[in-house]
Design a protein that fits this description.
Order of helices and strands of chain B: EEEEEEEEEEE
Strand content of chain B: over 45%
Structural class of chain A: mainly beta
Largest interface: A-B, 21 and 20 residues
Largest sheet of chain B: 7 strands, mixed
Distance between the termini of chain A: 36 Å
Radius of gyration of chain B: 13 Å
Oligomer: heterodimer
Helix content of chain A: under 10%
Radius of gyration of chain A: 13 Å
Shape of chain A: globular
Number of helices of chain A: 0
Chain lengths: 113, 121
């Protein structure tokens, strides 16, 4: 199985500042046939299911604010939340869908400082 | 709009079989190119994919669960069901059903609210 490792486990950011979450895969998730990274990000708020926010490493899901952005390739990826808002408090997970079984990172908790 | 709703017993006894249903509304589980998966979340294991069924009936199961997990679709009820046999305390989790974004990838763009299952003797 591909192991997904996120860092940090948690971070506290002031309103309006930037939050950066890292995700590392144990092997490359770059699909050579279409040159796309099979990497997604989910947001999970308390008592709710995960919500897809980024896929193909950098494509925002419809309706997701543009303060959310994804970057990276191969094995190293980043989710950036610019201008952090109170409603962004949540746990964020990365997931690879390059191989079966799809696997998730352990999550990063984002709080307001 | 498409919605998913999980249902099942909140408590299951050790060594018994857990059975869950996911009712799909606003669409058919046999819609062309649709795929449906089950994922669980526990404090110890985080988010863990369990199984997927394609609109065509093709099934994928988590290698770590092997024959313990069964997934099926019931068109008459528009439900996707999951069974997990010989459960232990480590199967205690919130179980989600989710829709794949497309048939060609294991990316989940719509999730149900989840149903909590506790395994206890």
């Amino acid at each position: 199985d591909i192991v997904m490792t996120q860092s940090p486990e948690s971070l506290a950011v002031s309103l309006g500042e930037r939050a950066t979450i890292n995700c590392k895969s144990s092997q490359s998730v770059l699909y050579s046939a279409n040159n796309e990274n099979n990497l997604s990000w989910y947001q999970q708020k308390p008592g709710q299911p995960p919500k897809l926010i980024i896929y193909w490493a950098s494509t925002r899901e419809s309706g997701v604010p543009d303060r959310f952005s994804g970057s990276g390739s191969g094995t190293d990826f980043t989710l950036t939340i610019s201008n952090l808002q109170a409603e962004d408090v949540a746990v964020y997970y990365c997931q690879q869908y390059y191989d079966i079984p799809p696997t998730f990172g352990q999550g990063t908790k984002v709080e307001i400082k | 709009q498409l919605q998913l709703q999980e249902s099942g017993p909140g408590l299951v006894k050790t060594s018994e079989t857990l059975s869950l249903a996911c009712t799909v509304s606003g669409g058919s589980i046999r819609d062309h190119n649709s795929c449906w998966g089950w994922i669980r979340q526990s404090p110890g294991k985080g988010l863990e994919w369990l199984a997927t069924i394609y609109y065509s009936g093709i099934i994928y199961r988590s290698p770590s669960l092997g024959n313990r997990v069964t997934i099926s679709g019931d068109v008459s009820k528009n439900q996707v069901s999951l069974s997990l046999s010989s459960v232990t305390a480590s199967d205690t989790a919130v179980y989600f059903c989710a829709k794949h974004q497309t048939y060609s990838n294991f990316l989940f763009d719509l999730w149900g609210q989840g149903t909590r299952v506790t395994v206890s003797s």
